[in-house]
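Incident review: delayed structure delivery

Summary: a single-chain prediction request sat in the queue longer than the usual turnaround. Root cause was a stuck worker, restarted by the on-call engineer. No data loss occurred. The affected request and its eventual output are reproduced below so the record is complete for anyone auditing the incident later.

Affected input:
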Amino acid sequence: MGLFPYRARLRLVVGSLAVALLGVATGAPPTTLARLTDTATSTQSISTDTLDPPTSLAATGGASIGLSWVATVDAYASGYEIWRSTTSGSGYALMGSATPRSAISATDSPIAGTYYYVLRSYFQTWRSLDSNQASATVPGVSTDTGQKACVTTAADTGGDGDGYEIATANLCADDSTFATDASSGTALRSTSCANAANDRHRFQGFAFGLPGSVTLVSGIEIRIDEALNNNGGTSNVCVELSWDGGTNWTAAKTIVLSGAAEATYLAGGIADTWGHTWTASQLSTSNFRVRVTDATNQNNKDFRMDYLAARVVYVP
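Output delivered after worker restart:
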């Protein structure tokens, strides 16, 4: 009697399970046992950037060309591409690179000529816009005109206004005969080149024989053969150059005269451009001028000039 009820209960459980399975098989909706919900959210910002070029590109010529710049502000940049052309503003070709981003200089060694450069920052396949353009020249073989004498002269404003007033024709001949600036200047004379009380004289007509175009003027040297009537005080000769017939002048170079006897003095030199970039036309007889100021702190000082000549060193 005790076994029968157990078997009956077992049949009931199995039967209920069969009914449940039958319900699933026949499409009856299953009972939802659990539901999982993810309430987490995620946000992300996306930024953009422009790869900036280096700035303040500069080029210095000579036997080779030195480049310098200020590094790009973008710290992720890998370095810089260096682009070069023989035409200003176009025709650039890639000639090298500089790394890392902190690099601020490079050297290029092309053949003689004038070259134009731009730089681009790079990162992987990304390139910036061009930097500013800079140019420089590698000179070729220099040519020396030799010393060329002045042809004509004239008193300039300053002092008593008559410059080398005695035997002026002697200024352009190397023959130990003198032109004289007697008792130079006025009462307010001094050793300052800029003092308007000092006498001045200008020289022109130098026949340099330059070609129609000049690649580079590397230096100008002025020779003056000068004497004094005595050794008293301090006496200077100040020399300026003009490239436009006397409208504008370079800064003066001061020659300290060493004694009364005639001596040869030089101003400038084969590698001294006097702070100006010269062209062939500016060195023509119609444009090139030399001005000499006699500056002394002694009364009754006579400046005695035998000869003045100019020499140009240039690359054709």
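Verification: The longest helix spans residues 3-25.
Action items: add queue-age alerting; document worker restart procedure.
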